[in-house]
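Ticket reopened. Same input as before:
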Amino acid sequence: MSAREKHTPPYLLTLAARERWGRSEIAFWLGLVAVYFLLPTKLMFASQILITGLFAVSLDLILGYAGIVTLGHAAFFGLGAYTAGLLTKVGFTEPASGLLIAGLVAGIFGYLSSYLVLRGRDLSRLMITLGIGLLLYEVANRATDITGGVDGLQGIAVGKLFGLFAFDLYGKTAYLYVLGVSFLLFAIVRALMTSPYGLSLRSIRENQQRAVAIGIPIRTRLTNIYTFAAVLAGISGALLTQTTQFVAIDVFGFQRSADLLIMLLIGGTATLYGGFVGAAVFLIAQDWLSSINAEYWLFWLGILLIVTTRYLRGGVMGGLKSLHRLAARARHGAEP
Amino acid sequence: MLNFLGLLFDGLAYGTLLFLISVGLSVTLGLMGFINLAHGVFAMVGGYLLVVLMGRFGIDFLTALPIIFVAVALASLVLERTLYRPLYKSTHLDQVLLTVGIIFVAIAGATYFWGPGQQPINIPDWLKGQLSLAGVDLSRYRLFLMAVGTVITLLLVFGLERTRFGARVRASVERQRTAESMGIHVERVFQITFALGSGLAGLGGALGVDVLGLDPYFPLKYLVYFLLIVVVGGPGSVMGTLFAALLLGVADTAGKYYIPETGAFVIYVVMIVLLLFFPQGLLGRRKEI
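Engineering reply: fixed in the latest deploy. New output:
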């Protein structure tokens, strides 16, 4: 231990340790880069998983960390998706800046709607988020001239990335693009959540009264995390539009919000990686099971939800963590 | 004017149905603070039971209704015991996820057994057609609905206000801890009211096949309506629920008639606005859930 470390208060050391990137984390991202070389035929599907994972991470921010129950997070995803699609329609085809604008639109909407959502308690929040989601679905459904209605927004031509890299048929550029954006945004999320700011969100979730007592401005914190989550969701929606060159109306659907909750639950809430892991498990299972029968899939999904709420708390990441803890205990037990 | 009266009549009949279905949800929320999104499933089960009882077993419409009430109530008891009870003290998120899971299983099950389409139903001849009253043509079936609704509301109010069990329910809604310390077995009270409420939802679903329609997505389609009624009426309040249900029924019918192009838009806007301006519910005092 160096002389400087000796004089640092222990809580600062703990914070610094939280901020350090672990080996498994680095392996996770390197693994995603490896996917590009190892599975060149599955890149479109892999991009879908990453996009959904990013979307799930954005939900994790407000649900897992801040404890806001929502059933309408797809609203922001859909807004981002339609914004990115409509931008190309008016001749604005550069993807990276389209992404930023989509995020901005979703963020503004998130900021405004946060005042509606944060007013009430769980039940009112649930209903208002549900209502806003359904409302936007109705708007997209009715405004056929702009959105294409139930048929979805078609004929989206995305330009070259930074004017240099064109999107190809096999999704190579798309995958690297999605991976880059995901990593960048994830790094920001990670920095935020390991910082004292992230800790203050957790304390709000755990006990509002005590959080107030130690001087955390609850309302401000919740408003800005809600807005930030909306930006992330909007960007992931825009990514989906740009990589698939199509917007289906179900980006606003209740099913999407519900699926997202389930993914997060499978992956584990407030674990940073839970969103990506859950999205991967969910989408691969869906790909496999719904090819057998679409209705079966809904059935198993329901069963999975019921079982998870009863028995599998913490999801995959929770399971991994307890395994890790067990292994650590075994090691420490071995050396006296 | 006559047109308006007709609309009002239709809206009230529609509201009566919504009331029958949502009153049980109101009690569930008021008593246990349990967010049960799957309440519409009981109504759907009631509807499908009616289709099966009348279609396959040839049971008379009026005989089928009490059978449905009892069957759905019993089924809900099983569900309460096995799935709901362990989550009473859990977070609202867990309750939401569990009940969304139940909805999904119900949708998949209904599609498996009856297919994705709307279910037709043959209401008895004496309920078909119109009845002319003071120049206004009133559907016999809707009159029947309102009569059933009135009887059930009176029974509910009488049961709550005048019986010992009703007093227990009111005490438990008002303040659970105190009720418990006075020797009221709140869980038992809740179990019975849950069964009664689910039975009523089943009955409402059965009566509503002809008005609301019946397909596997029924519990999701009307989820917002049920929740809205309960939140606006105030969880745990029968009269509040009735008032909110009738209001919503009339508003929705009028909206669909006068401004059909907006579709379901009106109801969502109404919901958000109501929640904004009346966070305490229309009739004042509401439990914080």
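DSSP finds twelve helices and two strands in chain B. The mean pLDDT of chain B is 85. Please confirm and we'll close it.
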